[in-house]
Design goal:
- The longest helix is centred in the last third of the chain and has 25 residues, at 356-380.
- The protein has helices at residues 78-93, 124-134, 145-156, 179-189, 206-215, 229-241, 348-352, 356-380, 383-400, 403-409, 431-439; strands spanning 2-4, 11-17, 21-22, 28-38, 61-68, 99-105, 109-113, 120-121, 163-170, 194-200, 220-223, 245-253, 259-267, 271-272, 278-279, 284-292, 295-304, 313-323, 333-344, 413-417, 422-425.
- The protein starts with a strand and ends in a 10-residue tail after the last helix.
- It contains 11 helices and 21 strands.
- Strands 5, 6, 7, 8, 9, 10 and 11 form a 7-stranded mixed β-sheet that branches. A 6-stranded antiparallel β-sheet has the order 1-2-4-17-13-14, with helices on one face.
- Helix content is 31%, strand content 31%.
- With 449 residues, the chain is α+β, with helices and mostly antiparallel strands.
- The model is unreliable at 1-8 and 41-58 (pLDDT under 50).
- 48% of the residues are buried.
């Protein structure tokens, strides 16, 4: 384990958990990389002094709140009122000095506050003005989320802030722009700001909302009852205000002959980063991790090494945490580093043992997958397939101690025997329960200690 330490900046550490031993002919190496950041969120979001722009010199954060104002937000009328109240609660949670703006989203995106293509500086006066402007929000028009994201990008782009973040609320499907337009907007915004996405009610598309959050390295969730929006927005904004370091990447260097099979975040949720690699020099690539406060995350790295003889040993991969120079001119900082090894042995007990962390997160990734497959099968009328997949999900959730997912599953299936995964599909399932299970299917639990 290596640490990066500097006065007044967060400290990062990397720990690697693996069984390095391979049998003769063995080629696949798995490791869980635990990344921990301390000293970032504990400042309460106060910009860290003397640490350069990436550590919050100047304003610590810039935030754009995107509120769905399409016609469906008027059904029932309390939905729009709850959205206004939630946005006001988020504004109240902004730290003084934070740059912010509010955008109304329909089939077009409109600036609500402060207007003029700029961001306001949060203080008592500007917060009051922003909340006054919210009272003018009304429902009408369609939904074209790509336009909302592009406006947020134009507002956040010039901001002198270490953290650039969006919050997006929608209650419906993205029906007024082509799917490729939303994809293009997400590709354009990826790496420029992070974004949390929330679906309110039950008339929105889970894959759209989770896809937005995944592409922009944020969180996704359902708020089935609009009256819960204010509490959710407050918690979300408190989390954003605790972030201190942006644009940290996981750099994977591999020797000649080593192939990367995948790189996935596996805690606190499952997110496949494999396809998001950017080249970073000979045999090295960077995988984005977004913004950090005081927190810990786990990543599963899987590589394929060349064949070697008994007794041989090699470095299979070097994992580094990298902070780019925000100016683009200087040398990126290595915050922490860990090594993944491969050792060939004829000791069968050693080479066949599965590391507990690797086993646990392999199960958690399968859990997310079988939930999604089971729900798809159920929607398509394949009830036998749905029963098998959701039964396996119950078995995995029970074995790993993922009680939150187990509770969500119990609203979709009747559990006969959790240990064996024996279940019966419920005849009637509330739409909100099914959408909640799908939306939260990627959330994981840490390894039992």
């Amino acid at each position: 384990m290596a640490n990066f330490s500097k006065s007044n900046v967060p400290q990062f550490s990397v720990e690697v958990y693996q069984n390095a031993f391979l049998p003769e002919g063995g080629r696949e190496v798995n490791a869980i990389v635990t990344v921990t950041s301390t000293g970032g969120g504990t400042t309460g979001g106060i910009p860290l002094a003397g640490s350069g722009p990436a550590y919050g010199a100047g304003p610590g954060a810039a935030v754009v709140l995107m509120v769905d104002c399409s016609g469906s937000m008027d059904y029932p009328p309390t939905k729009m009122r709850n959205a206004r109240d939630a946005t006001a609660a988020a504004i109240d949670t902004l730290r003084e000095g934070t740059l912010f703006a509010v955008v109304a989203g329909t089939h077009v995106a409109q600036e609500v506050y402060p207007g003029g293509g700029r961001l306001a500086v949060a203080d008592a006066h500007t917060k009051a003005l922003a909340k006054d402007a919210l009272r003018g929000l009304s429902a009408g028009g369609g939904t074209a989320i790509g336009t909302w994201l592009r406006l947020a990008d134009r507002l956040l782009g010039p901001a002198d802030a270490g953290i650039r973040h969006g919050v997006l609320l929608t209650d419906g499907r993205n029906e007024h722009e082509a799917p490729e337009d939303l994809r293009a907007a997400l590709e354009s915004c990826a790496g420029r700001f992070t974004c949390d996405a929330r679906g309110v009610g039950t008339d929105w598309e889970v894959k759209e909302v989770t896809g937005i959050a995944s592409a922009l390295l944020g969180t996704a969730d359902i708020v089935a009852d609009p009256s819960g929006l204010a509490d959710d927005f407050t918690r979300m904004m408190e989390n954003v205000m605790g972030k201190e370091v942006a644009d940290v990447t996981l750099r994977l260097w591999t020797p000649v002959g080593v192939e990367i099979r995948f790189v996935k975040q596996v805690a606190p949720s499952v997110a496949d980063l494999t396809g998001r690699r950017t080249e970073a020099g000979p045999r090295a690539g960077d995988y984005p991790t977004g913004s950090w406060g005081d927190e810990s995350r786990d990543y599963h790295v899987c590589v394929r090494v060349p064949q070697a003889g008994i007794g041989q040993e090699m470095l299979a991969a070097r994992v580094s945490l990298i902070l780019p120079d925000p100016s683009g001119a200087g040398t990126p900082q290595t915050l922490s580093q860990g090594l993944v090894r491969a050792v060939w042995t004829d000791d069968m007990a050693a080479s066949t043992s599965i590391n507990p962390q690797v086993a646990h997160y392999t199960g958690q990734a399968e859990l997310a997958q079988v939930i999604q497959q089971g729900l798809e099968a159920r929607k398509s009328g394949d009830f036998d397939g749905a029963t098998a997949k959701l039964g396996r999900a119950v078995q995995l959730a029970s074995a790993s101690g993922n009680q939150d997912t187990a509770r969500l599953l119990s609203k979709v299936v009747d559990v006969v025997d959790a240990a064996t995964g024996t279940v019966r599909l419920k005849a009637k399932v509330a739409e909100a329960d099914e959408m909640t299970l799908e939306t939260r299917s990627t959330k994981t639990v840490r390894v039992k200690k």
